[in-house]
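Archive maintenance. Older records in this collection stored only the sequence; we are now back-filling the structure field for every entry so that each record is complete. The fields below show one back-filled record exactly as it appears after the update. Entries are processed alphabetically, and NDR1/HIN1-like protein 12 is next in the queue.

ARCHIVE ENTRY
Title: NDR1/HIN1-like protein 12
Organism field: Artemisia annua
Length field: 212
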Amino acid sequence: MGHDEKHDKHIDVEHIDHEKHNHKDHTYRDTYDPRGTRRKISTIVVIILLLILITGLVLWLLYRPHKPRFRVVGATVYALNGVTTMQFTLVTRNPNQRVAIHYDHLVVLLSYNNQAISPPLMLPPLHHETKTTVAMFPMLPVPPEFVNGLGNDDGFAAVSLRVVLTGKLKYKSGIWSSHKRVYVGCDVLVGLKRGSLGEVPLLGPSVCKVDT
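Back-filled structure field:
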């Protein structure tokens, strides 16, 4: 074998090695694309965020608390030892299917023409299970002249009163809970007669506004 043949073989080996190296580089560039990898990661992150948002929306729709409902369904006047009181039957409904309601620091009073005519009365805490109705019977002292002064001798006078309830409210479902202030104002039209005692008529359904 001559010197030229050895030189040619050496060149061929170098050429083959160079081709292999170029092929490896080309294969590496084909299999690893930084921009494509970033796009895949971004797509995965977006999908995860969308799943989290959808899950949160579904949970919010399922467990979103609805305000309780209130109405006054009865009123009674009592006079004992010179003290005149009015007792109201206040009914509240928890419309939530998955969220219970707990009331605390409840205070109720009676107002007439935007003026309180009874002292504030503290009520005990109240736990309200889902889809249930609870009645409260607050007895509120009122000035005797209020009943006698507004009533008619011959018939009932229509008197517009407001039963006001304030306090703290807690929505609770499992480990989740939310604390809020609550204000309830129930406008009720009652029929008063001078010297009225006992149950007095309600001249129409009450209208209650609930703010939380």
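Update note: Residues 110 and 133 are 22 Å apart (CA to CA). The first strand starts at residue 69 and ends at 80.
Entry marked complete.
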